[in-house]
Amino acid sequence: MQEIRIGFGQINPVVGDFAHNSKQILQIMNDAAGKVDLLIFGELALCGYPLGDLSYRADIISATQEALEQLVAESAEPRLASLTVVLGHVSAAATHSDQQSSYASAHNSATVFSGGEVIGRYDKKYLPNYDVFDDWRNFVPGSSELLFELQGQRVAVAICEDIWHPEAPQRDELANAGVDLLVVPNGSPYTRDIQSRRRNAARSYQRGFAIAYANLAGGQDDLVFDGDSFLMGKDGQELYRAGMEPGLFITETKELEPVLDDEPQRLYEVLVTGLRDYCGKTGQDKVLLGFSGGIDSSLTAAIAVDALGSQAVLGIGLPSRYSSDHSLADAQQLANNLGCEFRVIPIDKAHVAFEDMVDLKGLAGENVQARIRAVTLMAISNSEGRLLLTTGNKSEIAVGYSTMYGDSAGGFAPIKDILKTDVWRLARWLNASRGKELIPMSSIEKPPSAELSPGQLDSDSLPDYNLLDDILRLLIEKTATVDEVVALGFERELVSEVDSKVRAAEWKRSQGAIGTKTTAVAFGSGRRVPITTRFGKL
Amino acid sequence: MQEIRIGFGQINPVVGDFAHNSKQILQIMNDAAGKVDLLIFGELALCGYPLGDLSYRADIISATQEALEQLVAESAEPRLASLTVVLGHVSAAATHSDQQSSYASAHNSATVFSGGEVIGRYDKKYLPNYDVFDDWRNFVPGSSELLFELQGQRVAVAICEDIWHPEAPQRDELANAGVDLLVVPNGSPYTRDIQSRRRNAARSYQRGFAIAYANLAGGQDDLVFDGDSFLMGKDGQELYRAGMEPGLFITETKELEPVLDDEPQRLYEVLVTGLRDYCGKTGQDKVLLGFSGGIDSSLTAAIAVDALGSQAVLGIGLPSRYSSDHSLADAQQLANNLGCEFRVIPIDKAHVAFEDMVDLKGLAGENVQARIRAVTLMAISNSEGRLLLTTGNKSEIAVGYSTMYGDSAGGFAPIKDILKTDVWRLARWLNASRGKELIPMSSIEKPPSAELSPGQLDSDSLPDYNLLDDILRLLIEKTATVDEVVALGFERELVSEVDSKVRAAEWKRSQGAIGTKTTAVAFGSGRRVPITTRFGKL
Question: Whole-angstrom Cα distance, residue B54 to residue A60?
């Protein structure tokens, strides 16, 4: 094994931007020249992943083919001659599986090339179709193996689910064929325990061959590919591990960073990456958000500053007649701590105008304040070309504790997959890790309130967040039934009420902004439940 | 064949409401007693379809099983003794296909029962995974046939995609087994040409056996199941066709209504059904919407009145300083014609307040008016418990010609899958079919305008709607590439610009209200494309 010098081309592609992606790939090929024998890129690195239904389009497939041919031609350059490249890309499919319709017409492929020549192409066999993955919808499965020789070693290729799939029937064939090294391009998005799961998947797939697991880097809509490419020796020992960031990682360097499963640091970096890449890839460089003085907007602001720089972030204080004094003071303190611009726009003029126009008793009177704030923020978004961030956390999005077209308004929701108790945990970790009070302690410590009526507290209408989050973790992330949660010792009435609220808020979530997935079941592209259902309705 | 008297139990189930669904089923069983030998219900009629990821839940599966056992027990009643029932439902699955992960753990089944005994169960073999269908994600494929004898005839069961699938390899086996009648429960949602497509699917599947095609009725989120159950003789001749509405349809009656592919009448009835059932099934009986005097809100109002009654519909005129005189007059006329309540709330007070609070030059000044209207409408929605309807058509949703959290706000979007030129066509048809001016002619004939700045017309920023809709039909509904559209004679610059606008508006659509699907590619659960992509970006 030691004879093959392996490099991971951990690029951050933009879906459909072939000039951009090819440039990154070529740069890494050049960087790797002379230092690496086998250079492995992630799944669909050339066209970007996931493509969604863009994979149905003949123009995407032909543009990918053209870009691939150009890179193969480039590899004929004498200085790249000793490099063998494994590159993921979409390709045209002629046939279908018996079970498939004729909609999908593309393979999820990886081509091996060297010295200007194609050595072979492998098409992904196992097409994940759960959570955020729609591969079975969008691709046609492959049917044959790809083996090649490199420096006297037998090398084979698999793609992502091929080794994750519980059946994984290929592995014995590969072992029988005397494979020494299995090369696996992946499109593996971050979730809290993904680092361990990747290694477990690789180890249980091994049959005496080494595994080079190559992942993508960077954000794509609600997903963040957190790199973490690794090389596992034939004995299941991990020999090398790459970082989260894009770049060329060469396995000669042997130092291993610790696995950071469920660690605040990695989680926070993922949230920063998700926002940075959403903005960068959609051509937006400035954001704004409401600074309420609360913990959600404070953490979101810190993420935005780390993603885009303090100059790019504008905070707006939007006090109403029910706002507490500390909310404005805390918001100002946050802006000072983060070094970003802060403006104050009291909303009472509009509030009075709407009182004059419509009846604002009860809930209507609470919601109108949140909506006036959204109108104000969107006006600034329109006139200054700034992306509005919405600051809702997963707990409130789960139970519908938000105002539609009010605080839920925005183009991106950085912490939508972070439960409230984790918001606090991240805020405390952030202050500790920076060695200073970035997020005001008062914002961390005060009891949560929407401040939409006098003296209002979240605890007036919701259970304690520790309890709520425990129940939500089970109901949503573990997809437990009410009975199953009750069996763990929770009160039935409370669990049923939470479950019922979660279902009733489905229509709100269906109109929610996208935001970074961090858990097994996020409120994003991977959650597909009907709005109209009476199951579990109280 | 004539010996078996067939009935279609075309029920309108609510997802997860077993009491409600079982009651409908039992009612129809009782109605059919003595008149029908074989009573066929639609796909997943007992639990509702589509279930989405609810199919992962053990509690849904056990509740279905319980409801099924109860219905089987009921069928032991002497007066039901001569009835054989085919009923669609979800059921627990033990194994998986090689290609599947372990997430799905249910079959999409149909059980045949009679006289208190189960004759057998069939599990759907071909699981559609395109457009709105996620069956491969949510179900495990079945692996065996179900044949039974009834009055000396051999009867077999297939479910929906089993006969739609292009390969459809079962048909020869069925013919070899001497099948006389194939019974096919379907969950087949309306699209413009679906009636012809259903008959073509059945005919190309036939191998000398008759086909009894049973569909569901009613709306479920963005889908409307438009009934249309039919019996096709062994020679491919259609013998009986049911209507759109829920109920028991007995094939002894031989009269055939004409197929109404792409006819305004059926399309309009589908839109009415979609809204009626969304409201009814989610427990809402009153709606409101802005009456702008334009054609989109006028058609939406007419649909709402037909769905819920004129008493249930509230129109609000929300004139701004840029509103024309005719817009309020036309809105008042519409309310008079429809017999629904109409209130006028000028928005200038709030407009002035926001001018005082923020800079409102250009686009910000246009959008703020649409957003003030949304805040006003949502306040009334909150205080009166009325569902807000949003009135955007498919043309403007396609190119992003709408204000986020403004005119796009609402819980349901009745005409979101109707292109602007079809909005006009439907309005003219509606007036003609009712023999009076329901929708004011002035609303039909005036040039479209958002009226957000002085003298503004849609044609200032969009191509003529006839041209735009022709291009959109190709780009979206036919998923044509720019090159393919240009090859049909359209100007490249224009097609590229439209294509680019469509992509840029993906983030807006990702937050859009659900609404009834009427075409092959709607902006609903069946469209899955990334927000972040630079493909086709100008």
Answer: 34
pLDDT tens-digit map of A319-378: 999 999 899 999 999 999 999 999 999 999 999 999 999 999 999 999 999 999 999 999
DSSP readout, A426-455?
HHHHHHHHHTS-SS-HHHHHSPP---SSTT
Judge whether A530 lies within some domain: no
- Which CATH number is A328's domain given? 3.40.50.620
For A122-171, give the secondary structure using H, E and C: EECCCCCCCCCCCHHHHCCCCCCCCEEEECCEEEEECCCHHHHCCCCCHH
CB proximity under 8 Å: A 330-369 to B: 345-347, 349-350, 352-354, 356-364, 367-368
Cα(A369)–Cα(B502) distance, integer angstroms:
33
Residues B188 and B333 in one domain: no
CB atoms B358 and A374 under 8 Å? no
Flag whether residue B76 sits within 8 Å of chain A, measured between CB atoms: no
A243 plus A279 within the same structural domain: no
Interface probe, candidates B358, B408, B478, B506, chain A, greatest A C-beta count within 10 A: B358
* Phi, psi angles (nearest 5°) of residue B111: -105, 135
Q: Does A504 touch chain B (CB under 8 A)?
A: no
pLDDT at A261 over 80: no
Label each residue of A319-343 as H, E or C. Answer: CCCCCCHHHHHHHHHHHHHHCCEEE
* Phi-psi category of residue B383: left, alpha or beta, with phi > 0 → left and psi -120 to 50 → alpha: alpha
ipTM: 0.96
Q: Residue A254: CA atoms inside 13 Å, Cβ hemisphere, count?
A: 4
Q: Is residue A415 part of a domain?
A: yes
pLDDT in tens, A160-202: 999 988 776 788 999 999 999 999 999 999 999 999 999 999 9
Q: Which residue among the candidates A47, A124, A396, A451 is catalytic per the annotation?
A: A124
A233 touches chain B (CB under 8 A): no
A533 interfacial to chain B (CB closer than 8 Å): yes
Please confirm, yes or no, whether B279 is among the known catalytic residues. no
Q: Given B200, B221, B253, which residue is the final one in a domain?
A: B253
What span, in angstroms and rounded, lies between the C-alpha atoms of A408 and A506? 14
Q: Are B312 and B362 in the same domain? A: yes
Give tens-digit pLDDT for A137-151: 999 999 999 999 999
User: How many helices (H) and strands (E) in chain A?
Assistant: 18, 18
Contacts of B99 in chain A (CB under 8 A): 97, 99, 126-127, 136, 141
User: A119 and A69, same structural domain?
Assistant: yes
- The reply to whether B273 and B219 lie within a common domain is no
Residue numbers of chain B with a pLDDT score lower than 50: 1
- Residue A122 resides in a domain: yes
- Total CB pairs under 8 A between chain A and B: 281
* Residue type present at position B389: L
Q: Among the three residues B229, B253, B277, which one is the final residue of a domain in this structure?
A: B253
**A396 a catalytic residue:** no
Residues A248 and A330 in one domain: no
CA atoms of B490 and B498, how far apart (whole Å): 11
Q: Does A94 touch chain B (CB under 8 A)?
A: no
Set of chain B residues whose Cβ sits within 8 Å of the Cβ of A104: 130
Q: Find, in chain A, the residue whose alpha carbon is nearest to that of B514.
A: A510
Say if A493 is an interface residue toward chain B (CB within 8 Å). no
Q: Cβ of B409 and A411 within 8 Å? A: no
| pLDDT above 90 as % of chain B | 89
Which CATH number characterizes residue B233's domain? 3.60.110.10
Q: How many domains does chain B have?
A: 2
- Same domain membership, residue A232 and residue A326: no
pTM reported for the whole predicted model: 0.96
The verdict on residue B495 lying in a domain is no
Structural domain containing residue B321: 268-458
Q: Are A164 and A290 found together in one domain? A: no
Chain B interface, best mutation among A51, A59, A66, A99, by max B CB count within 10 A:
A99
